[in-house]
Amino acid sequence: MREDLKSADPAAQSLLKTAGEKNVITSFERAESLKPCPIGSHGACCKMCHMGPCRLVGKEGETEGVCGASLPVVAARNFARMVAAGTAAHSDHARDLANTLLAVARGEAKDFQIKDARKLNRVAGYLDINIEGKTVNQVAEEVALKFLEQFGQQKGVLAYLSRAPKKRQEIWRKFGLEPRAIDRECVEMLHRTTMGVDQDAENIMLGAMRASLADGWGGSMMGTDISDILFGTPKPVQSRASLDVFKEDEVNLVVHGHEPSFAEMLVVAQEDPELASYAKSKGAKGVNLVGMCCTANEILIRHGIPTAGGFLQQELGIVTGMVEAMVVDVQCIMPAIAEISKKYHTKIITTTPKGKMTDAIHIEYDEHHALELAKKVIRLAIDNFENRKKEDVAPARVKPEDMIAGFSDEYIEYMQGGRFRGSYRPLNDAIIAGRIRGVVGIAGCNNPRICQDSLHNFLARELIKNDVLVVQTGCSAHASGKAGYMTPENALENAGQGLREVCEAIGIPPILHMGSCVDNSRILTVASHIAAEGGLGDDIGGLPAVGIAPEWMSEKAIAIGTYLVASGVPTIFGAGSPIEASKTMKDLMENKWWDMVNAGFYFEDNPEKMLELALKLIDAAREKLKIRPYSPGTFGTERVLMDMAARRAGTFATPHGVDV
User: Which of these CATH numbers, 1.20.1270.30, 2.60.120.560, 1.20.1250.20, 3.40.50.2300, describes 45-231?
Assistant: First the structure.
């Protein structure tokens, strides 16, 4: 297959061609040769016990497993287990960060410090922790301990549920969707979906929603907040994105994965003058730290460290022949990189006991000795510089695109009114007036079975043309960064008139980079602020907002999509449906969930139909809210001198331009 059909990224196309010339097999080629199982990919294969696997290939209602499990039950169990796994991944990330925060508070991790005490105090307020008369470290210790309680508490519900609108909390309470403890929801979901337990598809999916909320309003939100407290709350920074951010005359060190703690220390260690001198002694001009995947997003939004891209770039980074070392931690790490590295000089370094890899070097990260370990890794990379072979060097030769990243929910509030008058009123007013049609969060992964970035880029372009403000995280954010969409100039060139005017007034891109996968929780807090501001209802459900994961591949994405829906945000996934085999499941998620949580979950592969559905959902929400119908280029009602007849008729225009 031609390289341009595998990826929409010109740099990836260039390196795929190089890989082909050097007989390097990547995930793109493996996806071509290894076809997905049509039964398992549609949710119709049950592997919950050794009586199977049972392949339910007949018509729904006429086929069942050895135990008698129906097709909807099998599809529901498979889906729910994906939710539990995704929730476990994000929440284990948060657990590690909570333990780091505790160590910092107790003075046991001296290389770290509290970077944002204001955010710490704000979080303490969410947790009902009194801060009066306490030092920063005392508050941090109480916050860390409260966070750790959230994993295994035996009574009550998750503390962060109180951050949602009251109406949303009532919905969760009514349907039994309030997560009690993060670990409990993951364990119970695995228990309920084992052979011979929960045999009702709707009930299984209620459990899946509850488990997902333990991610969105638990693990992910906690992980985001702790990262902000320890490493700083993001604000806009300028950087670059491309597979061509590697430097031929410097030591290139790639940090790849999802946990930000060690990456933060590598940023600090990179600036050590002693290491800079050591690099020069080995013939390099310096050390070039580059991010990849969600760890890239973490150090991008806080430090402006350039990104080489997302999930599908990791093998291609090695193909440049310029990567001295790739440091990996957890999630989305391809085992293939260790094998590919054998053809180059690149060292793969694993850093966690949760994720070791055959043929990789293991240097175990410990927050108590973080900076020392970071310097050790950088020295290893420097020592490997002299092993780089000139004949292997193959730059992509595609100029990196400029980008602006780092839009936390706090900064979005600040940019609309300043530090002392920050609010969401301007955004709400722009939506009410029709300047902004709605908001779409595009998130999720890349999938080598789809032309890389093609759906992310198509949707981002078309949505902003239709005056939809786009917020992005994860690999989706990498896609827009590499395409040059995350600059204010993009608003002038491609956005609709209304969105363009808003972006010009504030000085922002029409596509906002909000961080990594776990930072989808920022979207929940933004939605909560919009609801609290007034004028657009009193709940997340009903807002003119949609979530989309067009190229998903991970169980984490399924957990994210489910918690968005359970929070009231209609959500659309591309890249195939894991419940395709069951019409009952499709009806449940697309229709019946609306009656419960005021949102539905859709699977749609066609990008044009995805766009059409998103706009339809946004316009339907506007109509239900009784705000001005969206019409391109017309905002509010023109001021007119009213005659007495018009006054007697009682026709006048409200400040939001809606005739009443």
Answer: 1.20.1270.30
